[in-house]
Write a sequence for this structure.
């Protein structure tokens, strides 16, 4: 009798342990309650270590990767997507459905965003290359050309990928990625015909928002370093930008008074693979009265980037002055 009781108790305890294991749905819900994205990421990492059900762990890694990508932590996001893709499991209950092929493509995109084209190529040359999904194949072709652009050192090196991207515009099988193809061609060539096609054919796309100036490309190594044969100007699409409603002097004063103060202590202007190019930009903006300096950052790919930064000053309007002087920048705390 005692043996039977012991056995039942053991089974009950095991059941309790499995019942207490966190699910991806629960973890993501709790992560959303955190005060910051950083806290959410830290919480998810802790909970993933407690998961033993493959589908739950896979879903948690996907959610973690998406948060890291939003934070521009592309190297971390790439690794999290890769860990999710390596888990042989289906979708977790209550979580978005995603195939392993889609996850691999997410990892490729993040690898390219941080300039790690070697890792991107290794993913592109994996089993995903044999996919029967036409949309997956379209993204493989697009990302292959993005990788070629990422490797380019000068304008001559971008000619072949540009020709390939132009050819993709004529192929129906590439319809799923044509907005991205057009955006890439516009960005590297500066030709207005591409921006006009984006705003005409895909007016509600994020690519159209970028062309019109309503959204900005993040200053990732991919977009910074790719050589360009022309300068892409935002606001050049075929759709006219709506005029902002006029404000009275009183309304402007209220808006200015209620505006939140800038929290950024410095502004990033660019990333460079060579220190000499970074120094040229830093010296150039310093000559115009800005407090510029250079710092370095070594990425997972092993590449060291030289980053040009400008310190905020007491006026609090350094970013506006930089942009008025023709320099794109974004805030860094």
């Amino acid at each position: 009798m005692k043996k039977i009781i012991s056995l039942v108790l053991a089974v009950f305890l095991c059941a309790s342990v499995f019942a207490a294991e966190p699910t991806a749905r629960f973890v993501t819900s709790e992560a959303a309650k955190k005060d910051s994205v950083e806290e959410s990421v830290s919480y998810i990492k802790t909970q993933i270590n407690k998961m033993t059900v493959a589908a739950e762990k896979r879903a948690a890694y996907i959610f973690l990767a998406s948060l890291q990508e939003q934070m521009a932590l592309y190297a971390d996001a790439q690794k999290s997507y890769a860990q999710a893709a390596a888990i042989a499991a289906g979708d977790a209950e209550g979580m978005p459905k995603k195939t392993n092929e889609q996850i691999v493509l997410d990892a490729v995109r993040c690898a390219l965003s941080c300039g790690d084209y070697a890792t991107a190529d290794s993913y592109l040359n994996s089993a995903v290359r044999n996919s029967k999904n036409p949309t997956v194949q379209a993204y493989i072709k697009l990302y292959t050309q993005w990788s070629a652009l990422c490797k380019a050192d000068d304008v001559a090196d971008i000619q072949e990928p540009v020709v390939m991207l132009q050819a993709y515009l004529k192929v129906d099988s590439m319809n799923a990625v044509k907005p991205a193809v057009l955006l890439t061609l516009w960005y590297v060539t500066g030709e207005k015909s591409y921006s006009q096609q984006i705003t005409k054919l895909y007016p509600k796309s994020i690519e159209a928002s970028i062309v019109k100036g309503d959204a900005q490309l993040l200053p990732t190594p991919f977009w910074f370093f790719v050589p360009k044969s022309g300068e892409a100007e935002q606001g050049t699409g075929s759709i006219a930008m709506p005029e902002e409603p006029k404000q009275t002097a009183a309304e402007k004063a209220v808006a200015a008074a209620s505006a939140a103060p800038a929290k950024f202590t410095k502004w990033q202007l660019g990333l460079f693979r060579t220190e000499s190019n970074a120094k040229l930009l830093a010296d150039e903006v310093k000559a115009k009265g800005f407090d510029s300096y250079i710092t370095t950052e070594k990425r997972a790919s092993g590449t060291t980037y030289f980053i040009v930064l400008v310190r905020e000053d007491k006026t609090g309007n350094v970013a506006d002055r930089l942009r008025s002087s023709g320099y794109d920048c974004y805030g860094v705390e």
